[in-house]
Amino acid sequence: MRRLYLCVGVRDDMATFLPAVLRGGVDVVQLREKVLPGAIQLDQARLMVAICQEFNVPFILNDSPEIALEARADGVHVGQEDVSVERCRELLGLTAIIGLSTHSSEEFDEALGEDATYFSAGPIVPTPTKIGRAGTGVRYAVSSQARSARPVFVTGGVNATNVASLVAAGLRHFVVVRALTEASSPESEAREIRRALDEALSAVPVEPT
């Protein structure tokens, strides 16, 4: 079961950074790049695909199913204003991983009717990766997970200090950004988050999601 999801932009040190966090316990990776041209994203995606394959970890591209297809990514993640899940399925096929962002209960209700592999809920707190978007709060993410048979990844400020309390609240799948991308030792930080997550999960009943 995939639990710890890294979301990261293009980095000059990706060839060393990505293996480090994968050794530390990250088990899903997304390249999220909102500014740089598609050609640069494609080059970075190809590097990341090769690394992720060595670790048997799925690689997801943000926004563009076309680039995901060209890079041979495992799937794509789209937001409410991006290309539809239906279009992603048409381009990438039935077995592709397709994630869909939600930011409110109304959006989540609609998302449940989509052919997405997983959803994200949040950010539960304001974050610089979602400029101008208010935090949704933990209750929304917990409610979303309770209504879904598919995984719901919570976003917004997840780190080694708070992940156990989020598990205790009822959450099971986590997206990490700054705690790893800004870490002085990404591998050590990933291990700390993974340790805290696994210890917290060991204290609750095993669930199917």
Keywords:
209 residues; alpha/beta; TIM Barrel; eight-stranded parallel beta barrel; 9 helices; 8 strands; globular
Model description:
This protein has 209 residues and is an alpha/beta fold. The protein has one domain: Aldolase class I (TIM Barrel, Alpha-Beta Barrel). The protein is 42% helix and 16% strand. It has nine helices and eight strands. The chain has helices at 14-24, 38-54, 65-71, 85-92, 105-111, 138-146, 163-169, 178-181, 186-202; strands at residues 4-8, 28-31, 59-62, 75-78, 97-102, 118-121, 152-154, 173-176. An eight-stranded parallel β-barrel has the order 1-2-3-4-5-6-7-8, surrounded by five helices. Helix 1 runs parallel beside helix 9 (186-202) and helix 3 (65-71) packs parallel to helix 4 (85-92). The longest helix is centred in the first third of the chain and has 17 residues, at 38-54. It starts with a strand and ends in a 7-residue tail after the last helix.
